UniProtKB/TrEMBL annotation:
Residues 1-135 form the Phosphotyrosine protein phosphatase I domain. It comes from Massilia horti. Coiled coil: none annotated. GO terms for biological process: response to arsenic-containing substance. Transmembrane segments: none annotated. InterPro entries: Ptyr_pPase, Ptyr_pPase_sf. Keywords: Arsenical resistance. It comes from the Bacteria. The lineage of its organism: Bacteria, Pseudomonadati, Pseudomonadota, Betaproteobacteria, Burkholderiales. This is Arsenate reductase ArsC. Pfam families: LMWPc.
Length: 159
């Protein structure tokens, strides 16, 4: 099962989601990330945070949703801009859910305040990913209506 984490720029929140999901996911589940308007580079603070958490990022890069290596089964938008966009037609009737998280790369302030914003975004995304992976995935992958309801519920969780 392939999960696409989608954000407009594909540099920060979607990267954190992709790397964290792949770090925690069971065999047979894989995450990718992309953006509708990718920046073309990954956010250095997001990369540093993931390294601090012991989550590998080798091989990840900022990419367009037009350049996906696989067609996702599930699309999780992590920013409000991406949630309102129409996914490319080739994605078909993919299961979609929205897990909005404030963009820590837009926070201005001291290094401590900026780091705290990245930690908060990571904590929210990790809690939601852990809740996702705690679901009875073998059962739900064949029940799209129930899976969608569970994913929508998870999108409201805060750590």
């Amino acid at each position: 099962m392939n999960v696409l984490f989608l954000c407009t720029g594909n540099s920060c929140r979607s990267l954190i989601s992709e790397a964290t999901f792949n770090h925690l996911a069971p065999s047979g589940w894989h995450a990718i990330s992309a953006g509708s308007q990718p920046t073309g580079k990954l956010n250095e603070k997001a990369l540093a945070l993931l390294a601090l958490k012991g989550i590998p990022t080798e091989g990840y890069y900022s990419k367009s949703w037009d350049d996906l290596p696989v067609t996702p089964d599930i699309v999780v938008t992590v920013c409000s801009s991406a949630a309102g966009e129409t996914c490319p037609a080739y994605l078909g009737q993919v299961l979609r859910t929205h897990w909005g998280v404030d963009d820590p790369s837009h926070v201005a302030g001291t290094e401590e305040e900026i780091h705290a914003a990245f930690e908060q975004a990571y904590a929210i995304l990790r809690a939601r990913i852990e809740a996702f992976l705690a679901l009875p995935l073998d059962e739900l992958k064949n029940d799209k209506v129930r899976l969608k309801a569970e994913l929508d519920r998870i999108g409201t969780l805060l750590p």
